[in-house]
Design brief:
Keywords: Membrane, Transmembrane, Transmembrane helix. This protein is mainly alpha-helical. It is 56% helix and 0% strand. Bound molecules: zinc ion.
């Protein structure tokens, strides 16, 4: 329960704080842009089943892969265009949020598929 609350808090509420940090004047508009970065989860539609409890998104879905994630972080650091940079920040933070969820799952379950997210990393 705490895991679920934390996950959705980070995905929907905490990004409001990021938007406020990013631009105190236009933070509501930027919050909406950050909310729109949730569309990255559309890659879940490409697999069957679409939702599986205990499955870690990181390294499983295309837009959550180890090939895509570095682009989000590099974009967040180096892209100068304010809106595109914010989108990259949103995507990078989305991956951090999903990763926290994976670590949390992994800590509770040795056999669930969250374990796959960490295979080969250490
Ligand atoms: Zn995700």
């Amino acid at each position: 329960m705490l895991q679920t609350i934390t996950h959705y808090f980070l995905h929907f509420i905490f990004i409001g704080a990021i938007a406020y940090w990013y631009d105190k004047t236009n933070w509501k508009k930027y919050w909406l842009i950050l909310l729109a970065t949730m569309l990255v989860d559309l890659d879940h539609l490409l697999v069957t089943p679409i939702f599986s409890p205990g499955r870690c998104s990181i390294r499983f879905h295309y837009l959550h892969s180890e090939y895509a994630i570095p682009f989000y972080f590099l974009g967040a650091m180096f892209i100068k265009h304010k809106i595109i940079r914010l989108v990259m920040i949103g995507l990078a933070f989305h991956m951090i949020t999903d990763f926290i969820d994976c670590v949390w799952m992994y800590s509770k379950c040795e056999e669930c598929s969250a374990k796959e997210a960490f295979e080969g990393l250490w």
